[in-house]
Recover the amino acids of this structure.
């Protein structure tokens, strides 16, 4: 029995037994290579669930939708390892109770979909640690290295070019499971920290703020990158930040639901070589 | 160059240490570069990266941040939190192409008036050597927007 069928059967069991009130998974998308998030609450709909190597979106962001978990019922969700890390971070930041989440874990290695057998978030620590060991590589390794080698001036020009395309649609924010603030800093206008019009300066500021707020929290699922309508390589910035917190503070985001957020904690002997 | 470039530098300082240090420098009649505009804050932990971006957005050529030595924080650990934040923020600025040399950090206590004066002088000199932050100034000009703050 394929993993898809196994998970369909399990979803059916959970829904008809009332163990979960909803299953969040994937269904067919607008064309053969796309998958669309699917929200089902009736056992009759489980046949619409699809699971294959095109299921790339991180669905964990839907769990913090307002009111979804407030009735303390359980919700099942299809997650890749990055999604499971995202759940850990959301739990660590008190945005949800990990007990309420039933995980349909899977990973895609090559083109092969593999099941991650367990169902509770805390049982995935081995999987997550093995990813940490592997040290995830930037999606576009080559470009990342090229940027690293540039002089500050060239780097500025590179990002100037990229950010000039930004239209401030905030799709990156919308797609990100970590951007759950009710009121984002760019929406506040007293004071107006970030320029609202989409000129390049405002775009610089927005993208810097976005990346900063995600540093030490980003799981590099790539939702922002894929959501960007003008294809700004946002993932590279996030990757640089993840690399920094791993190197400087040995912090790998989302290893457990009790992990302290990296920028809300400190060690007395943190590095301070840059301070005069 | 006939005229030397006078950089505009914004300093965000903690009221319990560096601001008192600046006061000491003043009462000791120490002379230091007049390019720095000091903004006093309750703690280095209060210094949001947004402040740094805002200073640059308003045309600062350099930003300077200073507070209590580790262990001396009035609020016991505000500066430890700030230190982590800067570490990450520095890396981010560097990756985006804003030279980290334009944003300087230091610990200056209330007793270090001399260190304060020297620090201001060296930073001003360093930023003068770097010259105006032209790439950013160009972006500011493009916006053609009056200051929003």
């Amino acid at each position: 029995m394929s993993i898809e069928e196994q998970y369909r059967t399990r979803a059916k069991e959970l829904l008809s037994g009332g163990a979960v009130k909803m299953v969040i998974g994937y269904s067919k998308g607008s064309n053969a290579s796309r998958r669309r998030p699917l929200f089902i609450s009736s056992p009759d709909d489980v046949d619409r669930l699809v699971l294959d190597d095109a299921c790339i979106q991180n669905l964990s962001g839907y769990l913090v939708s307002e009111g979804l978990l407030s009735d303390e019922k359980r919700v099942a969700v299809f997650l890749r390892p990055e999604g499971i890390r995202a759940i850990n971070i959301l739990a660590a930041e008190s945005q949800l109770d990990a007990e309420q989440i039933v995980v349909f874990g899977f990973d895609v290695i090559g083109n092969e979909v593999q099941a991650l057998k367990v169902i509770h978030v805390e049982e995935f620590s081995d999987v997550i640690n093995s990813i940490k060991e592997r040290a995830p590589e930037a999606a576009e390794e080559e470009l990342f290295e090229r940027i690293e080698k540039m002089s500050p001036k060239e780097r500025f020009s590179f990002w100037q070019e990229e950010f000039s395309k930004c239209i401030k649609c905030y799709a990156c924010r919308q797609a990100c499971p970590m951007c759950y603030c009710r009121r984002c800093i760019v929406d506040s206008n007293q004071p107006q920290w970030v320029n609202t019009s989409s000129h390049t300066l405002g775009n610089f500021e927005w993208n810097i703020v976005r990346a900063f707020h995600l540093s030490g929290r980003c799981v590099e699922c790539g939702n922002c990158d894929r959501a960007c309508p003008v294809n700004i390589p946002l993932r590279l910035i996030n990757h640089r930040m993840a690399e920094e917190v791993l190197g400087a503070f040995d912090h790998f985001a989302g290893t457990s639901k009790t992990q302290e957020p990296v920028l809300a904690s400190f060690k007395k002997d943190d590095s301070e070589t840059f301070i005069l | 160059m006939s005229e030397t470039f006078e950089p505009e530098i914004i300093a965000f300082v903690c009221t319990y240490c560096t601001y008192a240090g600046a006061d000491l420098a003043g009462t000791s009649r120490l002379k230091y570069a007049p390019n720095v505009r000091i903004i006093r804050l309750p703690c280095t932990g209060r210094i949001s990266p947004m402040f740094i971006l805002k200073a640059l957005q308003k045309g600062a050529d350099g930003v300077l941040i200073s507070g209590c030595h580790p262990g001396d924080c009035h609020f016991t650990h505000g500066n430890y939190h700030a230190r982590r934040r800067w570490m990450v923020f520095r890396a981010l600025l560097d990756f985006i192409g804003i030279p980290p040399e334009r944003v300087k950090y230091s610990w200056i206590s209330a007793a270090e008036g001399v260190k304060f004066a020297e620090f201001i002088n060296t930073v001003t000199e360093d930023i003068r050597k770097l010259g105006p932050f032209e790439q950013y100034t160009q972006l500011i000009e493009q916006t053609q927007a009056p200051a929003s703050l």
